[in-house]
């Protein structure tokens, strides 16, 4: 019985929570969108409206990850902006200049994680030819009406099929939320001091859409779009995370932009 007593007294080491490899996060201005009809993106509204465009940069021990690339930097040189099928795009400050300001070269970006393939999110993909794309296979394979590939074919790509843990440590998770497009996903990150944040991509365009559980009528799959909102709510609750809506104009004033950062 003595042997049994001895082994029982050896305390198991407390399980260590895996240390998040994220060190900091920068919020980047990625353009402004003037809409001719706000109702197309936020049901219940009519008349002109505006959306902000926001990108997020993460410094991880394993390298840099950029979430979305916003409107193309070339638009910065167009005084009238660039017309889109829904309004006009404007860029007051380029993505390249914001990276330069914090000493990050485009070639430093290891992963380019894109919520989906719409133009206001992939406008600067070509700045990062050496990065590895992280997208859903369903988005990568989705035929573009013009016949051109949605992503540069010569770029390395991780084609996820569902949720994906980018760095393998739980700190950066892609949460599959199809509906807006076949392979849309959101981003869930765990910052050491700020805590858990979820970035909506275009699963949610505005706070009003989130509050009223509304999705745009032109979405690829309306039933999936509605299900995506439920999935997001469940993940937010499970991780006690804040939701950041990249297109919601009122969020701009609430967040500190690069070169300031979150830890």
Q: Would you kindly provide a written description of the structure presented here, covering whatever features stand out?
A:
By secondary structure, the protein is of the alpha/beta class. The chain is 16% helix and 28% strand. The protein is built from 5 helices and 13 strands. The strands form 2 sheets. An 8-stranded mixed beta sheet has the order 4-5-1-2-3-6-7-8. It has a 5-stranded mixed beta sheet with strand order 9-10-11-12-13, with helices on one face. The chain is globular and about 45 Å long. The N and C termini lie far apart (52 Å). The relative contact order is 0.17.
Biggest sheet descriptor? 8 strands, mixed
Question: Could you name the ranges where pLDDT drops below 50 across 5 or more consecutive residues?
Answer: none
**What's the number of helices?**
5
Strand element count: 13
Please identify the structural class as seen in this structure: alpha/beta
Major sheet: arrangement of strands:
4-5-1-2-3-6-7-8
């Amino acid at each position: 019985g003595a042997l049994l007593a001895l082994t029982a007294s050896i305390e198991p080491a407390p399980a260590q929570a895996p240390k998040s490899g994220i060190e900091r996060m920068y919020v980047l201005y990625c353009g402004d969108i003037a809409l001719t009809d706000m109702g197309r993106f936020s049901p219940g509204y009519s008349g002109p409206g505006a959306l902000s465009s926001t990108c997020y940069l993460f410094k991880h021990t394993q390298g840099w990850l950029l979430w979305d690339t916003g409107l193309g930097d070339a638009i910065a040189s167009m005084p009238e902006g660039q017309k889109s099928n829904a309004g006009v795009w404007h860029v007051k400050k380029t993505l390249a200049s914001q990276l330069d300001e914090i000493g990050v070269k485009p070639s430093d970006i290891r992963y380019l994680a894109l919520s989906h393939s719409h133009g206001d999110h992939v406008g600067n993909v070509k700045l990062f030819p050496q990065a590895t794309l992280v997208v859903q296979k369903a988005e990568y394979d989705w035929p573009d009406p013009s016949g051109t590939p949605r992503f540069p074919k010569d770029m390395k790509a991780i084609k996820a099929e569902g949720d994906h843990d980018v760095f393998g440590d739980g700190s950066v998770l892609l949460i599959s939320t199809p509906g807006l497009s076949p392979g849309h996903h959101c981003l869930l990150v765990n910052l050491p001091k700020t805590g858990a944040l979820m970035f909506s991509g275009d699963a949610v365009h505005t706070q009003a859409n989130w509050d009223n559980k509304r999705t745009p009528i032109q979405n690829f799959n309306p039933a999936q779009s509605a299900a995506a909102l439920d999935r997001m709510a469940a993940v937010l609750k499970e991780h006690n995370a804040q939701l950041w809506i990249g297109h919601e104009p009122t969020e701009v004033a609430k967040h500190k932009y690069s070169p300031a950062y979150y830890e």
